[in-house]
Amino acid sequence: MSKSSRRVDTFASHYIFLLIFFFHSGQLAGMDVVSPELNSLLPDEIMDTEAIEDISDSQAHGTNTQSKTTNETTVPMETDTSSNVSSAENTLVAPTSKDSSPSSSSAGNQITISVSSTTSSLPILKQSLATSTTSTKTTNSVSGTTVSTGGLKLSGPFTISAANHQIILNKVATAQASEASKSSATCHQVIKQEGQKLLVTAIGKSGSPIVLQLPNSKAPVGQTSADPKIQTPQFKVVTIGGRPELKPLVGCTTNQMTALQTQQLKAVQIAKKTPTSSAPIKFIITKTVNSKGASPQSQVVAGKFVPYLRYLLFYILCIIHLIFIYIYIYIGRVLTQTSSVLPTKTITLTEPIGTSLQSIPGKKIAISPLKTPSKVTVVSVASPTSSAPPKTVTLPVNLALGQQILAVQQSTSASPVKVVSSQATAQNIKPVQSVAVGGVSGSHFKTIIPLATQPNVQQIQVPGSRFHYVRLVTATTASSTVQPSGPSTNSVQTAKPMMVSTGAVRMSVPIVPAQSVKQVAPKPLTTAVQGVSTSQTQQRLIMPATPLPQIQPNFTNLPPGTVLAPAPGGGNVGYAVVPAQYVTQLQQSPFVTLANNSSFSASSGVQTQARLPVNGVSTTESTSRPRKPCNCTKSQCLKLYCDCFANGEFCNNCNCNNCFNNLEHETERLKAIKTCLDRNPEAFKPKIGKGKEGESDRRHSKGCNCKRSGCLKNYCECYEAKIMCSSICKCIGCKNFEESPERKTLMHLADAAEVRVQQQTAAKTKLSSQISDLLMRTTPVIPTGGGRLPYTFVTKEVLEATCECLLERAKCSEQTLQPQAEAERMILEEFGHCLMSIINSAGKAKVDCASINC
DNA sequence: GAGTTTGAAACT
DNA sequence: CAGTTTCAAACTC
Question: Which of A146, A450, A754, A776 has the greatest count of CB atoms below 10 A from its CB?
Fold first, then answer.
């Protein structure tokens, strides 16, 4: 688990602990968990409206008599974790007070409590006003009306059975419930209860859930459990536990949930770690919202839990709100820090028509907000007007990132779009699970915007690889609606994979069709946009925008920080590698460029341009050296005459005229790139490459053709690259070889000049530091007053005077024939007087200086 | 800074 | 592939 996840767990555990503590306190004090006033104040949206209505109805009916009997009898129980848990088949049914033979197979109200092996994590369930705090002792089978297991309380007829490391309390509504639970207190028997169920589940130390099940009594008696037709269509699950994933409550409960129910499940999950248990504990409160099969009896029973559930849900909601606030504060801080560099992006999303999503009005669906407050991922899905059925796309997001998804959906499709968010979140640890992409069909391209990092930085989920941050360079005018627009009409492009290799990381970026890209891009796109950046260094290699076959191999040689930019004009051009340092240009362009966020941040304000590594030589030297601006006048900087263009860079701060080497003329530029590559496929490859075996490590790939310069001037590319001419050079009168005296002389001169420059620089630096040090020593500044320190007043004259005073005192002592000890004392006293005089003088001078300054 | 030189790139 | 032209950097004054 990532740090962020752990942090969230800690964050959530804090509140959960308080919550549980409060519950315990209230229970032990014999108070109602939720007062009527508080209960009335609870917002209705906390709980499902239907469920509340059902419960209210059940309470109004009051047909269930079990609530009366709950207070009458309390069956002390004690959970024997060592024996009962181990016995998988032991079904212990305790006799209830009045209901003689409760049966789990009865269709009446049942409370099924599955207790894990340990009681350390027992939840407190107060079904009614029962206040018994007796510790329970689990026998083989216990039935009763009130059960207290550690902190757990149950009131009303019930049966308790332990099976499979679980203690099952089957609340028996009617006397019909009888032997069946005795005979088989396994989960299946519990499952047999039909109708609505209220499941309060906590996972104990062993991880087994504690299930409080309130089934509806409408189910016929003796009905088998596996009937899915009577299953409640909806559940509301509140899970509190250390492990984010939603584990099956009980085997029987899980079996009851069909796939449809799973989709309709609303889950709020709170990570928690019990202070008393090393293992994470999960409380799962499941409330059915099925209003069809509600029986009066079960409704009454469920109504008893309404205060508790309301209370619990209210606090959980509060916790969620707190976490959201925390997230937003954190994001706000991050955005504030990055807002100066990058503009924030406005993402407007509309709710899909006919969607079956949660009724969150904000058009944003917070998925598992409790997981990580550090990062929030917003997935913007701009759905086109295509009639393609929406497709639920699952994003295997890296868990370590601990991000969250604010899934926002824009879909004009009539088909409902499902966000399998909470469910997936509950089932998996991954905080970011799935995103529904409305209207997207067949797209494997997912875009996630981690707001915590940079507003425009997005992540591309590359299959088989880790997250790759990319960045959406949006248009200057943020559109409120995510509508793919642009002059480009070539929306269909063949997907072609690109291999980007940066060191040990090799990444395959599938180029999806432009149409799909448009859907994920929240900004108007003129064409398909792909950007991949895997490092923070800048790039310098320009790759052709056309889908030339010879281009793709070059991607393997892409330097880190390479950015792929789209062709603005469309046509047959696809992607081009643009310098990462031209983010500002990209930001203002209508194109979308994806790049490494760090590279963007690092290069946003830097005008220096990096060069490709030359034959493995580190680029740090060349990177630090700013590229010289070009002065092209006739080539429009679209030919290899231009160094910028040849180096795969945009012209920046150049002196060129009529420059086309920019994004404004990207079409022409791409055409020029294509032309150059047609002429020479290796035109943009570095000219200085590795030599043959035994030769120098670096040599010119083509060799020079010098005739007059003797290859000893910078006209010669070999000499300019500080390499010697090789056999492939066609130079005439070459003097750029190893034994060349001219070359040696030149090199010596050059070295001497360089050394001289370095020495001068070092000397200047040293001198400067010495001067400043001397100044600091001679005139130290008092930080507060700005005057001189007292010791600076101990000048030579002062020292001489002090010494004279001390000598005079010594002479006096000698003349008076004082003993040596007395003489020394007198001298020391005199020295003290001198020091005091110096200090007083310094103070006076300081005051005077201050007065003068005033 | 203007002019010249030079050689790579571009063109034929 | 060779010759020519174009071009911009390097160089000189």
Answer: A146
Residue A311's pLDDT is 66
Measure A698 CA to B6 C1' (Å). 24
**Structural domain ending residue among the three candidates A263, A288, A318:** A318
Which residue is associated with the tokens 């069956």?
A75
For the four alpha carbons of A496, A502, A504 and A505, in that order, the dihedral sign comes to negative
Amino acid symbol at A18: L
Query: pLDDT of A122-148, one tens digit each?
Result: 333 334 333 333 333 333 444 444 444
Using the structure, give the distance in angstroms from the CA atom of A686 to the C1' atom of B5, rounded to a whole number.
Answer: 26
Tell me the nt nearest to A636, Cα to C1'.
C7
Highest mean pLDDT among A320-329, A382-391, A523-532, A717-726: A717-726
A778-805 confidence digits (pLDDT tens): 555 444 444 556 566 677 777 888 888 8
Any domain includes A155: yes
- Name every residue whose Cβ is closer than 8 Å to that of residue A361 and which is 6 or more positions away in sequence: none
State how far the alpha carbon of A207 is from the alpha carbons of A81, A120, A243, A418, in Å. 13, 12, 9, 30
Which residue intervals of A139-276 are DSSP H helices? Answer: 179-183, 187-191, 251-256, 259-263
Spatial contact of A268 and A241, defined as CB atoms under 8 Å apart: no
CB A607 within 8 A of CB A626: yes
pLDDT at A779: 53
Task: Show which residues sit with Cβ under 7 A of nucleic chain B.
Answer: A 639-641, 646, 675-676, 679-680, 683, 687, 702, 704-711, 713, 715-717, 731
Residue range(s) defining the domain that contains residue A28: 23-318
Q: How confident is the model at residue A307 (pLDDT cuts 50, 70, 90)?
A: low
DSSP 8-class letter at A788: B
C-alpha A124/C-alpha A83 separation (Å) is: 23
- Residue A253 counted as domain residue: yes
Question: Is residue A433 domain-resident?
Answer: no
Among A318, A350, A366, the domain-final residue is A318
Q: Which three-class secondary structure state does DSSP give residue A241?
A: strand
Instruction: Indicate if the pLDDT at residue A831 is higher than 70.
Output: yes
CA at A121, C1' at C11: how many angstroms apart? Answer: 85
β-strand pairing of A75-76 with A141-149: parallel
Q: Which nucleotides of C are covered by protein (CB under 7 A)?
A: 6-11
**Structural domain count, chain A:** 2
Quick count: other Cβ atoms within 10 Å of Cβ A251? 18
Closest CA to A253 of A241, A265, A242: A265
Strand B bases contacted by the protein (CB, 7 Å)? 5-11
Residue A272: inside a domain, yes or no?
Answer: yes
- State which H helix or E strand residue A70 sits in: helix A66-70
